[in-house]
Write a structure and sequence with these properties.
This protein is an alpha/beta fold. The chain has a domain of 68 residues. The chain has 25 helices and 15 strands. Strands 9-6-3-2-1-15-11-10 form an 8-stranded parallel β-sheet. Helix 2 packs parallel to helix 9 and helix 14 packs parallel to helix 15. It is globular.
Length: 610
């Protein structure tokens, strides 16, 4: 068994001392995906108490949440309108503080019943119209309240003065402009002319106060959840998006902190042949540094109200970030980007400086999303600082050599082991649709680079795959020699195609071998038994934490397993209602009493994670 005591001597040592250097299991859950009998249209902050109860019953001590930031009306958690403010849709109307008993409280109960009827949680996907409907109810209620003498509210404003005033002003300006981007506002508001903003504040003071009051209520409900989690012995992990939306209160209030002529993204890789273009502006770290990193420090201080640990989204972006000129045609995605800083010799120094500051300024333990193309300096610094990275089971392979899946004891001790993430298909999706396939766009681009005509080869090499954009090898392409013959290329010129082939053709058999199962028993579709074998194996890893997506955990229940495929949270690079709206097929009350919990409890106990 791995000894994790060395973590106490890292830069994060005091955070590890508070958490304990022992193996733990946990679940990663988007709040919008869960619901209780009390929920109105969407998961609500008090529902987290039921998730905490479930974690405890199932032998898990970590609950990881997707970002809960205010997303405006775009409903994209990693493209938020604020890195500080919480999402108002998650408020529970019946749990608002300071609402007088009698008619006001009774009205909220009536409105909650009405909203449950209009936006039932039984639909397959979240209906985000619930947000506007809730805001209308909250707006009418707020008109009846006098918060001017509420000392707790005034104290909240003082404690959050770094961001709350600009945020509420931004929200009100967006409302009065028909939700247009701040870059399309009248020049005096776009450029923050003091006299124009002062006049706007005076005219719209009540509405500005309303947005501040919403955050006061959200913080209050969340602080109660934090107290409940501590009493239950469950640690909460937040998710802090690395970037913020271009159309956000942060960028509007402090544009000097951002490179507005650029869009952030990711370079081409095995899964995204054209790279990615997210759109959020990269940071001007030199300017932020001259201001004492106040923006970073205050972000962490705010998050520390709620979390014991936090996930640093796209941590490699702290070392260097992929940037694309705004003038670049959008259909090129991130293909023609460059790293910032361009000088690779600066990457380690920048990452080391910012991460050490982040550790110093908060008691939370940082965890790193270090997936994708990761520079060696990032791996080095994360390990040195005691910051867990992420080891994804399906990606932990002997790349470039045998291509076999690495045994779990080879996972990094300072890591989080997982079967999938919110940006990937659940295990069932992966097994049913992706194993044994190649990315079509990437293969097509390699053909063009090698002077081959993709359309002439597609039908000879591949059969129809069940997932869009994936190519499944024909069984008769049973050797590299046969592949080279069809390509008409000598071995020395066809290495990239050999790489695709060796990584995918025997993938299913290699994974079953990794699980210790008979490769001859492979089936086209997954089963709860196969999911259990995969989870059991990942729990056995050397990783100090094993945190699994709720969709994979639910897949262990035979009656839920067929529905697990629709629980995929996000399809990166795509936009639409299919993203950030997946909803689990049972209430949290039902989950609390489900036989699945005993299965999970036994699994976590056997792996020494309780």
């Amino acid at each position: 068994m791995t000894d994790y005591a060395f973590l106490l001597s890292t830069l994060s040592g005091s955070r590890w001392k508070r958490l304990g250097t022992r193996r733990r299991a946990g679940a990663a859950v988007p709040l919008f995906s869960v619901y209780s009998k009390k929920s109105a249209g969407i998961g609500e902050i008090p529902d987290l108490n039921l998730l905490i109860d479930w974690c405890k019953a199932a032998g898990m001590s970590l609950l990881q949440l997707l970002p809960l930031n205010d997303v405006g009306f775009r409903y994209t958690p990693y493209d938020a309108e604020s890195t500080f403010a919480l999402e108002p849709a998650y408020l529970r109307l019946e749990s608002l503080a300071g609402v007088p008993a009698g008619k006001p409280a009774d009205r909220l109960k009536t409105e909650t019943r009405r909203l449950r009827g209009l936006f039932p949680v039984t639909t397959e996907r979240v209906q985000y119209g619930i947000k506007r409907a809730k805001l209308e109810v909250l707006s009418e209620l707020f008109k009846t309240l006098d918060v001017s003498r509420d000392k707790d509210f005034q104290g909240f404003l003082e404690q959050n003065r770094f961001w709350i005033h600009d945020y509420a002003l931004f929200k009100t300006l967006k409302e009065t402009s028909g939700e247009k981007s701040w870059e399309e506002w009248a020049p005096e508001f776009k450029n923050r002319e003091p006299s124009a903003l002062a006049a706007f504040r005076e005219k719209n003071n009540a509405r500005i106060l309303f947005h501040q009051w919403l955050q006061y209520q959200l913080f209050g409900q969340f602080l109660k959840v934090r107290a409940y989690a501590r009493e239950a012995g469950i640690f909460l992990m937040g998710d802090l998006p690395f970037l913020v939306s271009r159309d956000s209160a942060d960028v509007w209030a402090q544009p000097h902190y951002f490179k507005l002529d650029l869009a952030s993204g990711a370079p081409p890789d095995l899964y995204f042949a054209q790279g990615q273009r997210w759109g959020m502006p990269p940071y001007r770290w030199d300017v932020i540094a001259r201001h004492g990193y106040d923006y970073v420090v205050e972000k962490l201080r705010t998050a520390q109200n709620f979390y014991d640990l936090y996930r640093i989204d796209h941590v490699v972006g702290i070392f260097r970030v992929w940037t694309i000129q705004l003038s670049e045609p959008y259909e090129n995605y991130g293909y023609n980007g460059v790293f910032d800083p361009a000088d690779e010799s600066l990457w380690e120094e920048q990452g080391r400086r910012i991460l050490s500051l982040m550790i110093e300024k908060t008691d939370m333990l940082p965890c790193a999303e270090d997936l994708g193309v990761v520079p060696e300096c990032a791996v080095k610094v994360l390990g040195e600082f005691g910051i867990p990275g992420m080891d994804v089971q399906r990606w932990r392979r002997d790349w470039g050599k045998s291509y076999r899946f690495l045994p779990p004891e080879n996972y990094r001790p300072v890591s989080i082991a997982l079967t999938s993430t919110h940006d990937m298909g659940a295990f069932k999706n992966w097994w049913d649709e992706e194993t044994g396939t190649v990315d079509e766009e990437r293969f097509k681009r390699s053909c063009a680079d090698s002077g081959l005509v993709f359309e002439n080869l597609k039908g000879r090499l591949f059969e129809t795959a069940s997932a869009p954009g994936r190519l499944r090898w024909k069984p008769e392409i049973s050797s590299l020699e046969r592949l080279y013959e069809i390509l008409g290329l000598p071995q020395e010129h066809g290495w990239i195609f050999a790489d695709y082939y060796r990584a995918s053709f025997h993938e299913r058999a290699q994974f079953l071998d990794y699980l210790g199962l008979d490769a001859s028993a492979t089936t086209e579709s997954s089963s709860p038994e196969l999911v259990r074998a995969a989870l059991t194996r990942v729990h056995q890893s050397a990783s100090i934490f094993s945190i699994q997506m709720f969709s994979d955990l639910l897949s262990l229940a035979p009656e839920i397993h067929p529905q697990a495929g629709r629980l995929k949270v996000n399809w990166p690079g795509t936009f639409g209602e299919h993203n950030w709206s997946a909803r689990m097929p049972l209430t949290l009350e039902s989950l609390a009493a489900h036989p699945l919990n005993q299965t999970l409890l036994a699994m976590h106990k056997d792996a020494g994670r309780i």
